[in-house]
Amino acid sequence: MDWSKVSQPLVILGAVLISIWSTFFVCSGLINKISPESDRKLEHDSRVEKEKNEVAVKAQAVLAVKTRREEDQKAEKAEKAKLKVVKEVLKGDKEARLLKAEEEREKAEEAVKTKITAVGEVIQKLKVAKKAGRERLAKIEGLYRKERLALLEEEETLREELKSLTLEGGREIRGKLRKNSQKFDLLLEKKRSEVDIELVEIKADLKLIEDESLARWDEIKNLNKRILDLEAEIRRLKNEISALKAEIAILGL
């Protein structure tokens, strides 16, 4: 066998195999070298993408919170606006009631002044009535005194005549004296009757005037009480209006 002919292809084959193995090892080294870089790049890209996602999620969360806050602020503002309107209406109502109370108080004060004037007139009327009553009683007393004086003079005359008369004539005079005494009694009774009647009429007149005066004073007392109630209501309404103004000012900020 010719080994030279056989060895040549083997050498070529060996060279080819060596070349293939060399190429394989070179490529394998390159692959091993490229693979970690690729992995690192993928890991970096993954981390960057994850961070981007996290940033996006956080941004969405922040946006959601901001949106919710804005919505809450709008709702709160709308609620304040509604409440402000309610407070304004309530304030207007209380101001109207305050104005009405102040007007009523002024009318009551004027009425008190009028009633006091009326009471003064009634008191003056009472004084006049009392004076008139005293004058009427004095007139009765004057007439009584005049008649009594005439009877006394007549009695004195009869007694003087009695001294100078006889027994028979004295009887006549004594009869006249008895009649004179009866006239005294009748006069006294007449006076008492007239005075009693006059006093009843005077007391009735005075009672009417006094009742009128008391009625006026009762009206004044009731009006004064009403004025005090109105002043208390006015103070309360003013305080409530001031409080509402402060609340409205706060709601308007």
Q: Tell me the domain tally.
A: 1
As a percent range, the share of helical residues equals over 70%
> What is the oligomer described by this structure?
single chain
Q: Segments where pLDDT lies below 50 for 5+ residues?
A: none
Total helical segments: 2
| Average residue pLDDT | 75
Strand content: under 5%
Q: What general form does the structure show?
A: rod-shaped
Distance between the termini: 117 Å
Count of β-strands = 0
- Structural Rg: 66 Å
Q: Which structural class is indicated by helix and strand composition?
A: mainly alpha
Transmembrane segments: 12-31
Coiled coil: 91-118, 220-247
Keywords: Coiled coil, Membrane, Transmembrane, Transmembrane helix
Describe what this molecule looks like in 3D.
There is one protein chain. With 253 residues, this protein is mostly helical. The chain has one domain (75-252). Helix content is 98%, strand content 0%. It has 2 helices and no strands. Helix 1 (3-164) runs antiparallel to helix 2 (167-252). It is rod-shaped, with a radius of gyration of 66 Å. The protein starts with a helix and ends with a helix. 3% of the residues are buried. The mean pLDDT is 75.
